[in-house]
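User: Fold this one for me? It's Sigma-70 family RNA polymerase sigma factor.
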Amino acid sequence: MHHRPVRRPHTARLSPLEELEQSFLALVRTATPLTMPAHLVCDDPSEEVWPVDQIRVRLAHPSTRPELRARAWGEVVRRAHDLGEPWPVVAVAMTVPVLRRMLSRLARPAHLERQEVEQEALAAVAVALAGVDAGDAGVDRELFAAADRAVHRLVYAARRRGEREAGEPMVHLGRLHARATVEDLEGLTVSDEYQVLARAVRARVVDVAEAQLIARTRLQGESMGTLAGERGVSMRQLYRHRIAAEQRLASHLRHRAR
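Assistant: Here's what I get for Sigma-70 family RNA polymerase sigma factor.
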């Protein structure tokens, strides 16, 4: 008698946004969900506190007044800075509804995977989060702008890499070329950016491997997937390494600019 093999259900791999969403929702699907004061996003709330997912719904809703949105975002960022985990996760997850809309409109090359674009956007938000001022009324716009710059740099680099591999010249740069500059380094030229990294290595702000990671992915447009395979780590680990290195580098540059 022959037995047919049992077919196991295929479990699709979660995208970076989906993974973050699961971690975020886990914070409210407990007996004691993570909450925030409801008055931050509602003038006359029926309850004193709301779970953070309800706060996020109100933040993303177009009818929420700008002053309420600014007040709520300021509190989210303050908690991320002052209280630590899980508030940094909450702060980044608060950007997900807007990031989904932003990335759905992004025209990306076919060879650039959606997962890499999502991870790049989330990494940019995480890096920006560490440096924004919780008292700034436009703190949410700063986070979204950081994500927007990062994904456009990634798309530009992917297009440049594809055309270089195909032996074709770059014929149309337009808006993407402007976004391809490393604005976080205050308008420095490419050669200056390499010098900044070299000086950071000498100052022990980042090590050689971290500087190479930033240079190869940010300045040379190499894929994070390629470097992850080369270094024998997951893309998620590599993104975490780069976030930590870029946060130290940004803090070092801000300190030197004072």
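One thing worth pointing out: Residues 168-190 have pLDDT under 50 and may be disordered.
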